Amino acid sequence: MISLLPPLLVLAAAAQPAQAAPAGPPPERPVAASENPYAATFAAEGTGTDTLVSLHNRRGVRIELNLDKRTLDLWISPRAGASLDYRDRNFSNRDDHTSIFDRISLPRLERKDFLGCDYDPFHTVLRFKGQTLHLATLFDRPVVLLWFESPSVVDLKTDKQDTFGTRSDRLFEAEHPDRGLAFRFAAALGPGTGSFAHQRDVDTGRSTWARATVGAGQVLALAGELAGQPVSVWATEGAGTPAEMVLASTEAKVQAALARGHVRLRGRPDLQRVLDLNRRVLLSMQDESGAIRAAIKFIYYLIWVRDGAVVTVPAAHSGWLDPLARWNAFLLANPTVTEHEPRGRFFGQLVNGRITKWEEDGLFFAVWSAFTHFSQTGEARFASGESLAVLRDATDWLERWTFDPERGLFGRYYEGETPLSDSRGDGWDDAVGSPAERLRTEVRGRVVTRSYDLAANLTSWGVYLMLAAMDAERAPAWLAKARALEGKLRPWLDRRDALPDYGDLRTREGDLVRAAASEMDMGDYTWALSLTPFAGEVFDLAPLRARLLAESEKTDKTPFLATRFSLLASLDTEVDDEARILAAIDRVVPEAVRPGRYLPMAYTAPEVAGIADGHPYHDVRPQAFSVGPWLWAVANLGLRRLPFGLAVRPTSALEGIDAYEYRGALLDVRFEGRGRVERVVLNGKPVLHSLQVPDGRLVPGPNRLVVGLGPEAPAMPLLVSSTVRLEAVAPAGGAVTYAVEGFGRNVLAFRGRPAIEVRDAGGRRVVAAIRSSAGHTSIDFEGRGGFRVVAREP
Length: 794
Hints:
This protein is an alpha+beta fold.
């Protein structure tokens, strides 16, 4: 059995022309379930147990303080805020990175003296016996500041190929060539008793050292960008401005950036602090050009398509839109382009040019990102022109690659991030391009080579409906494809006695094996049932989602928070128990509150709950990937984001949401009282017969939405949820008329059992299906444009 390709075969594969197929995978070997088949591709420092404190600068600087090695490592990805090109945004990543100075060390810090830190992504204070270190980052410049409360030293070393510039008592500069670019690095000392001491003798092709003797309170600024930028000026200004002024200026900018979608809780101070701190983390981790990594920690410092969407779309659903707008601009400008068959543009695992796994879920997360911005703003910025053309091309590519016309289903070649046996990615880590051990995928002893599963097909169904909403020109074709897939999905999802099966798996022998959900990876399965827009209304997924939560809580002792909170965000307190949702959220709060043994950043979101400190792959924080769904799950308790609207819900947990961004309006939402929704008041006037907020009642700028809670029930009939945009509600003569805009697949759900009919803009009656379940009645019809839905109580 062979673990890796022989060296000559690796070289031969590397020498092939771009259009050639990659060399085949190495022979298969058994891999234990606990073994990571990609472990050989991760550098040792990414999986060790050093004590790390990590920050991130919005101008593309990753900041890692290693207390065991006594080093400060600053990775730079240039032109943040000026360039959307993935080559710039991904210039420094887990596998290839460029540091500002080759080495920055703090030799007088001792790990044994470390007492703890007060963590904030813009200003962290680290406490030691006899010393306190401040680490700060500027909001809009690639500059990192540090200062000590007692005198200390910092040593800096250039790379062997660097050329040094100024070497004075207050400034140390170097120019660094890297991958065809020229960088300028600068270290500057502000006013104080300390100064630089420089290496006496230097030589070409050798590193150059400098020591900064730093007085108490004296600021050392470290900066980097491309040569030609005023890097030394930035460093000098950063060091020369009093620290309290710099911190005040940064905080003002942070507060302005976080003014939208601020969720306020009742009587949950730890959860409030977790949410508030981690919104700051998200703000710092997304660079000005929109790129965001799953985490700052080495192992997850890559730009995943899925992770970026699962950070920014839920943030938008919580009322904060700017991260999603930036993400869309970056993502849609950088599809993968391949000359391998099927040729074309697509979205795979990474926003990383040609080097990426061909994971099939990338299309869903790209379309979901564009659709969410389109539906929440009413703008077509990412739903037209070149952005729409990219999404059309990527959909065509996925159909050519994975759609099976004989079965009428998508059949993918990945289970989560793991390639199935014998597939294109088997035996390679295509996130990097390196060989990897082949991970044998089996179900009941049968080797799996292709998967016709629920997740792949439910998300593809969602893709078609989202495209039908955004792409009026091709809407009929998208709707027809959605309709065909829905026919395949409905028997799957109408089951109520158990969770739907995972899917049909093609074996190495060519036959199909039906797999239960519990037999395969539940991550994609859970996301599909939780995130796919329209699915919960069209398929009535509420009972399945509740069952999925119950079963996952019994069996999943170490849940990925991004998955768990996505599921919690899909639950609707119109039919689900808020107390149960809150209990699931509250169980995770202590995981965030405590500082980790090796990642001592208290109140930051971890990747996985219940994981041991020092786990080589999953002891990760702060984890942006966890934060977005967490924000959404909490906001959803009182203000539920529908495919084309907002609906209020009764909540005991929320006091309010400040400046929720929606279609040019800023909603200040207040929850008053306890109990169920008694009344809804928008800008001083009642909203009757609807928990969905009528868009036509909103005004540009500030709006005040008061949700009164109590024992009384609101007037019936009562619209509680829909997949349409609600323009107006007009009660008259015992009936209520709802003026709506449809985008293809239209469902309206009412409490109770009212009589309902639909008429189009010309007054003609529209054929619709009506179904009742769990105390609600839904009407379901197709079409785009204006409709009138009339409901009467029996």
